[in-house]
Specification:
Length: 428
């Protein structure tokens, strides 16, 4: 009989955990669907901003706080919850988190006022703080060794599709039937994932975690990495949180054009993922610097040229291409410089991402009454330029062995070794 894996709760041998490759594959797709739901709900207020503001009689900056508060919660609790839940069974943990998501989605749809809606966002954020650090590892543990990297990639793809399909679809549905229907629809969609995972996920309990050192541990460089993430993500979200209002008020697009424009941005995001996957093996530092430069150019271009429709769309495409490259590079550098347990380091970088999201949304919201929405990309460019400066000032380490693992190698660290049954780390 297969031994249970200490983190995933699945077997450590090559056999699929869910009772067959077909069942295991279905469970992985259900996890990807859950990732899609979390990714969509996190960013949905961006597309629904004017609808929520009008219905609840609050300012656009107050709606931006729905993103800010969400990010702050994830940032604060990610690391503690990773430590607290490492011994919990993955099936009750993940299905419980998704049940909370469903209840909060319906509560958001029925929210009588802004305060209630804000509260549902904070509780949902608690669930996301647990979900991402464990879902990819759980997906990998469901599959045989030759398919585990692909399983992790499917879960990440669910999060990417949230930007490409989820937010544009939710925005379209909100404009057609009301923003509350968009949140309710996410609850129904997550219910499908919950039902599948309740049946297909293994129910074993975890019993420990094997820390694995990074390829070139360096506490100073890891701290700089955390700063880079906060600054670059913060610069991006200073503008992107309010992109709907920018496109309508500054660029002159109609409300009906917002969903197609967000879809264009999402397709560019997928293109950025593909490009990053091709070039990251040649050096994550160069990829991070190049992506940061693209984001600075796009944000400056949006400020300078965003009053015209065609340049605004072009800059929106550049934003979509630039951010995935930075994320991919930062993930690779975690595996290079993390000073201790790589899964705890991943929780720290996940927290840094959410500090950036929250801080950017807060900065942009503060600018709205002072300088108007057109100032948000200029401020975002300044913050992103600071991140680029930190990236360029951070000198690469002297070569001391094998190159930094590429994307495929990083994903392979998510699943246990066939020899010792340990987990090599986790991402997000």
């Amino acid at each position: 009989m297969d031994r249970e894996h200490p983190v995933t709760g699945g077997p450590v041998s090559g056999a699929p955990a869910a009772g067959g490759t077909g069942r295991a594959g279905t469970a992985v797709l259900a996890l990807a669907l859950a990732a899609f739901c979390f990714g969509t709900t996190e960013n949905l207020p961006i597309g629904l901003l004017p609808l929520i503001a009008d219905d609840l009689d609050v300012s656009p900056s107050a709606v931006g706080l729905l993103v800010t508060g969400y990010g702050i919660v994830v940032a604060v609790v990610s690391v503690p919850l990773v430590r607290m839940t490492v011994r919990m069974g993955r099936r009750p943990l993940l299905t419980g988190v998704m049940a909370v998501f469903i209840v909060m989605s319906f509560a958001a749809a029925a929210a009588p006022g802004y305060g209630t809606l804000f509260g549902t966002r904070l509780v949902t954020a608690l669930g996301q703080a647990v979900f991402w650090p464990v879902a990819v590892v759980a997906a990998a543990g469901l599959m045989p060794p030759e398919a585990r990297g692909r399983a992790g990639a499917y879960v990440f793809a669910g999060g990417s599709l949230a930007i490409v399909l989820g937010v544009p679809a939710g925005t379209w549905l909100g404009r057609a039937a009301g923003w509350r229907v968009s949140f309710a629809a996410l609850g129904v969609l997550c219910l499908v994932s919950l039902a599948a995972l309740a049946v297909l996920l293994p129910g074993g309990r975890a019993s420990g975690r094997d820390p694995v050192p990074a390829s070139d541990p360096d506490a100073r460089r890891f701290r700089l990495l955390v700063v880079m993430i906060m600054l670059l993500v913060g610069g991006f979200f200073t503008a992107f949180t309010y992109i709907t209002e920018f496109l309508t008020d500054v660029s002159g697009f109609s409300g009906a054009a917002i969903s197609p424009l967000l879809l264009v941005n999402g397709v560019a995001d997928i293109a950025g993922v593909v490009i990053a996957g091709i070039v990251v093996d040649r050096g994550p530092r160069a990829l991070a610097a190049g992506s940061a430069a693209v984001l600075v150019i796009a944000l400056l271009g949006l400020f300078a040229l965003g009053t015209a429709a065609v340049p605004a769309v072009a800059m929106l495409v550049l934003l979509g291409v630039g951010i995935p490259g930075a994320v991919t590079a930062f993930q690779a550098r975690v595996m290079e410089s993390a000073p201790g347990d790589t899964d705890i380091a991943s929780a720290w970088t996940s927290a840094a991402f959410n500090v950036g999201i929250a801080g950017g949304a807060l900065l942009g919201g503060a600018l709205l009454p002072l300088a108007g929405v057109r100032a948000t990309p200029l401020a975002g460019a300044a913050v992103a330029a600071a991140a680029l400066a930190v990236i360029l000032l951070d000198r690469p380490p002297r070569a001391r062995g094998p190159a930094v693992p590429g994307t495929a190698s990083i994903i392979r660290t998510l699943h246990p070794s066939e020899d010792d049954g340990t987990v090599r780390g986790q991402d997000h």
